[in-house]
Amino acid sequence: MRERRLLLKSALCAALALAASGALAQAFPSKPIRIIVPFPAGGTTDIVARLVAQRMSETIGQPVLVENRGGAGGQLGAEAVAKAPPDGYTLLMHNITFPLASAAAQIAGRPLYNVDTDFAGVSIAVYVPLVITANPTIPAKDLRELAKLLQSDRNLHYTYGSTGPGSFMNVMGEAFNREAKVQMTHVPLKGAAPLKQELLAGRLQVGGDQLSSSLGDIRSGKLRALATNASKRIPELPDVPTVREQGFPGLEADGWNGLFAPAKTPRDVIDRLQREVAAAVKHPETAKRLAENAAEPVGSTPAEQDAILRRQLEQFRPVIKEMKLE
Q1: Where is mean pLDDT largest: 13-17, 105-109, 134-138?
Q2: Which residue, 105, 123, 159, 167, has most beta carbons within 10 Å?
Q3: How far is CA 177 from the centre of its chain?
Q4: Phi/psi at 210 (nearest 5 deg)?
Q5: Nearest one of 84, 96, 72 to 163, comparing CA atoms
Q6: What pTM was computed for the model?
Q7: Tens of pLDDT along 67-118?
Q8: Could you tell me the domains of the chain?
Q9: Strand, coil or helix: 27
């Protein structure tokens, strides 16, 4: 009898534990969710995060808040998410700079987190083309002309801006220097918005970012598009040749914005967040706003977000190592 009572007690405890775990899973989310953008407000990543957060707040049953935490090429914000509890309440909205800056930090021996193991992909929210831009006062209409200009006059001291060490434009700028055999000086800034301000003011000659941040200024003539980094010409700038067309295939890269959670976040929480992101970006009003910013709604699976991160890490790690970025 005693053994039977113990067995019944064990079975009851197991059932209660299972019911409790199920209740906890169903309870997500039970408090506000925070999306960390690792750049200052005003850039494409910030715009996408706020559009997604606004729509998710209406459907997920809790406020979804955006927090800007810029610095170190996006690494400070990523570090905060890597060290957050893996419960789905602290998320990271990042872009192509994530694999690039993370690889640069690893190679330089100053990583703030392990990009290979500290994060779980949730969803690619959008695809956004990447574009290299210039202040229109420089006498070069495209990237090829810029190369010829700098090659012909070694007294020109041009600068290019980026959102920090190892960021998209830092890697593109150094790759261009190497392939064109020229020397532009790198000026790191804290985000896309201050980068564009410096470029518009003429304090930088060359810059670049996701197209959303600069499309209006390109169309108004305040900035000049030198090249796009996509594999083919983009509809928004049909007359702007790609980097490959201009003889710089090493600068080709896909642009995206996506959501990550800390590693070990429960799968059911990841899946719930993925569904919310997909619904958010595909909502007609949000999709329209994204299209106005040259962003294509995606809402991919978690596996696809993990895959593009791994693919770009593999693509650019050898390049970054050769460049010896600091």
Answers
A1: 134-138
A2: 167
A3: 24
A4: -65, 145
A5: 72
A6: 0.85
A7: 999 888 889 999 999 999 999 999 999 999 999 999 999 999 999 999 999 9
A8: 32-128+255-323 (3.40.190.150), 130-251 (3.40.190.10)
A9: helix
